[in-house]
Amino acid sequence: MLISQNSLSDYKTRIMNSIHLQQTLPEVFAERDKIESEVWHKDLVFNKKEIYLIEAASGTGKSSLCSFIYGYRNDYQGIISFDAQNIKAMKIKQWVELRRHSISMLFQDLRLFSELTAIENIQLKNNLSGYKSKKEIIAYFEALGIADKLDKKVGKLSFGQQQRVAFIRALCQPFDFIFLDEPISHLDDVNGQIMGELLTAEARQQGAGIIVTSIGKHIELEYNKVLQL
Amino acid sequence: MKLLWKLLRQHISIGQLAGFFLANLFGMIIVLLSVQFYTDIIPVFTEGDTFMKKDYLIATKKISAIGSFAGKSNTFSDEDLKSLKEQSFTKNVGAFTPSQFKVSAGFGMQEAGIHLSTEMFFESVPDQFVDVSLDKWHFDKESRNIPIILPRNYLNLYNFGFAQSRSLPKLSEGVMGLIQMDIVLRGENGQQEQFKGNIVGFSNRLNTILVPQAFMSWANNEFAPNTKAQPVRLIIEVDNPADASIAKYFQQKGYETENDKLDAGKTTYFLRLITGIVLGVGLFISALSFYILMLSIFLLLQKNTTKLESLLLIGYSPAKVAIPYQILTLGLNLIVLLLSLGSVAWMRTYYTEVLTQLFPQMEVKLFWPAIIMGLILFVAISLMNIIAIKKKVASIWMHKS
Predict the structure, then answer these.
(1) How many Å is the maximal CA-CA distance in chain A?
(2) Neighbours of B11 (CB within 10 A)
(3) What is the pLDDT of residue B259?
(4) Which of B310, B315, B394 faces A100 most closely, judged by CB atoms?
(5) I need a surface site. Which of B200, B289, B302, B350 has the fewest CB within 10 A?
(6) Is pTM, for the whole model, over 0.80?
(7) A165: helix, coil or strand?
C-alpha cells in the first residue's frame, strides 16, 4: 500500500481490518415495533478485502449508516467499532486521519464544490495526501469519458458527470474501506461497468473492502455478501 | 492552500471588511495617538524634579525693605528649625547650606568658540532630599568632580536669550549633561582650587545651584574654616502640601514658600483626565470594530457552512480550514497596525515641532509607547479573532447535521 509523506508515523499501526456493528440502530427507528433488516439491530462485521452490497428501499437509513460510519452523525444506538475501538470515543484528530488514510466515501449528494473546476475538486482532496499523480487522475477522467470536462466548473456538469468526478476523488486517497452511496444512480451501464472495474482494481491494489449501497440499479461487482437494509 | 483560499473567499463582503478596517484604523489611531501624546507632553509638566522627593516645600523668610536696611538677619536659627520639626505636617526638615567661599564657573565649547564664565554660588541640601542615584550624586576629593543640579531657568536663559541673540545652537538637557564646567573655588585666605563640574539634572522648582552635602561640608571647612554657614532656606518634606495648617504656621512665622507645586499638579491631573477620556473613546471604537469584524467573519463562515462541512468530510482538519480566515483577519489587523503607527508618526511630527519650539530642552524620542501599545492591541485583537474563528469552525464540525 502506498503511504503518503503526510501521513502520521504511526499510520502502519492504524490500518483498519474490520468495521463492527453491534445492535446498531438509528435513534429515529428506536420507537418502531418491528425491524426487519440484515444490518440494523444485528451483529455485523465488514471485513477488509471483501465486497458488500447493501440494498435498501428509500427511508430505511442507508445514508444514515454512511454518516454514522464516517463520523459525521452519532444519533444511533448500539456500538460501531473500527477493529476494537468504539468510534463514539474518537477525537477530531483521529477522524481527520481516518478520512485521509483509512476510509473513503462517495457521498450520495457528492459534496463537490461547484465553484471549482473538476480537476480542482480532485486536487483539493489529492493535495492532502498526494496519493495520485496528475497523470493517473487524468487517466481516470479519460477512462470515464469526461476528459473534456477537466477544466469545466463542476456546477456546469450534469449530475452523471459530477458523479464520475466525485468517484475519482474518492479514489484519490489510501483507504482500508471505501463506501459508495448510490454511485451509479445517474450513470449509463457502460460507465457503470468502467467504474466497477476501476474500483475493483484500486481496492485490490490497496487490499481494501468495498461497501456499496443501492436502491435499485447497482454497480456490477463480485459481491461477497448482499445485505437487505 | 491556494485552492482552499479560492474556495473560501467566496462571499467575502468587501463592504463589511472595509467598515471594520476603517473603524479599527480610527480606533487604533486615537488610542495610539493619545498614549503617545500623553507620554510626550507629560515631561513638560513633571520632568526635571523627578530627582527630588515628591512633596516638599521650600521656606524662606520674608525680605522687607526695612529689614534689609536694619540689617535684620533672614537666616533660620536653630530654634526656628526645632519649632518647625515639631509641627504635625512636617515629615522631615533640611537646611540649605550656602557656600562660604567664592565660586566662578565657566563652560564652553572650544569648537564653537564659546566660553561663558560667571561668578556664582553653591547650595546643598541633605542627601536624603535628593533622588539622584548615589553613584552620580557623590563627591570625591581625588576625582575633583562636582555633580551639579541647575535650575531649568538657566538653560532657558541660554537657549532663548543668549543663543537666540547670537544664533548659537540651542542645547538640550542631554547635551548639557555632557558638558563639563570649569569651576574655580577661592577661599577667604586667597587659596584657589580648580574643579570640574558635571550637570546631572535640571530642576523647575529649586532656584539654586545644588551640589552634594559632602562636597559643601568639605569645601566650607577648607576655604572658610572660620565662618559658620547659616541657612537662609529650608526644605521641608510634608505629607500634604495643601494642608491648611502649613499656610497658617507660615503666615504666623512670616515665612514664604515657593508654591507652584499645586498648579503643576492640577495641570497634570486634567491632562490625565482628558487623555483617559480620549483613550477610552479610542478603545471603545476599537472594541466596536472588533465586533464588526467578528460579525463579518461569522457571517462569512455561515454562508460557507456547507463548503466547510464538505471540506471537513473529505479530510480537512478544522485547524486547516480555519487558516484562511485567520490569515485574513491577521493580515487586516497587521495592515491596520502599520497604517496607524505610520499616521501617528506623521501626526506626531506636527506637535513635536511646536513642542520643541516651546521647550527646546525636550528631547524627541522614538515613539515607543505607541509602538508597544499598538503591538499589545494587535496581539490581543488577533488572538481573540483566531480563537473565535477556531471555535466557530469547531462548532461546524460538531454540528454533524
Answers:
(1) 54
(2) 12
(3) 57
(4) B315
(5) B350
(6) no
(7) helix
A residues 91-120 closer than 8 Å to B (CB): 92-93, 96, 99-100, 105, 107, 111-113, 115-116, 120
Q: Is the per-residue pLDDT at A157 higher than 90?
A: yes
Which is it for the CA torsion B295, B300, B302, B303, positive or negative?
Answer: positive
Residues of B in contact with A112 (CB under 8 A): 310
CA distance A105 to chain B (A): 8
| pLDDT (tens digit per residue) in A123-152 | 999 998 889 999 999 999 999 999 999 999
From first CA to last CA, the distance across chain B in angstroms is 26
Across B208-267, the runs of DSSP E, i.e. the strands, are: 233-238, 255-257
pLDDT of residue B7: 86
Nearest to B370 by CA among B5, B30, B21: B30
Look at residue B258 in the predicted model and tell me its pLDDT.
67
Cell of residue B275, nine digits: 487623555
Residues of chain B with C-beta less than 8 angstroms from the C-beta of A73: 400-401
Q: Which residues are CB-neighbours of B275 under 8 A, at least 6 positions away?
A: B34, B35, B37, B38
Q: Please identify among residues 137-176 of chain A the ones whose CB lies closer than 8 Å to any CB of chain B.
A: 169, 173
pLDDT of residue B363: 66
A69: closest chain B residue by CA: B313
Chain B residue whose CA is closest to A172: B314
Give me chain A's average pLDDT, please.
88
- CA A34 to chain centroid: 29
Q: Please provide the DSSP assignment of B298-335 as one string.
A: HHHHHHTHHHHHHHHHTT--HHHHHHHHHHHHHHHHHH
**Taking residues A158-166, what's their average pLDDT?**
94
Contact B116, B106 (CB under 8 A): yes
Give the helix/strand (H/E) hosting B139: none
Instruction: Please identify every stretch of chain B with a pLDDT value under 70, giving residue numbers as ranges.
Output: 44-55, 64-72, 108-114, 131-135, 204-205, 240-243, 258-266, 268, 360-364, 399-401
- List the one residue out of B138, B129, B327, B102 whose CA is nearest residue B219: B102
Residue in the block written with cell 538657566: B154
For residue B80, give the C-alpha cell. Answer: 526656628
Residues of chain B in contact with residue A116, where contact means CB-CB under 8 angstroms, are 3, 6-7
Distance separating alpha carbons of residues B215 and B140, to the nearest angstrom: 8
How many whole angstroms separate alpha carbon A228 and alpha carbon A40?
A: 10
With an 8 Å Cβ cutoff, is B65 touching chain A? Answer: no
Alpha-carbon distance of B237 to B129, in angstroms, equals 8
Residue A45 and residue A19 in contact, taking contact as beta carbons nearer than 8 Å: yes
CA nearest neighbour of A19 among A78, A100, A63: A78
For the record, the C-alpha cell of A180 comes out as: 459508495
pLDDT at position B176 is 77
Whole-number pLDDT of residue A80:
94
A172, three cell numbers: 484519490
Question: Any chain A CB within 8 A of the CB of B12?
Answer: no
DSSP H/E element including B111: none
> A138 to chain B nearest CA, in Å?
18
Q: How far apart are CA B247 and CA B257, in angstroms?
A: 9
pLDDT at A6: 42
Q: Of A51, A202, A220, A203, which is closest to residue A137 (Cα–Cα)?
A: A202
Distance from CA of B278 to the nearest CA of A (A): 46
Given the C-alpha cell 495648617, which residue does it identify?
Answer: B245
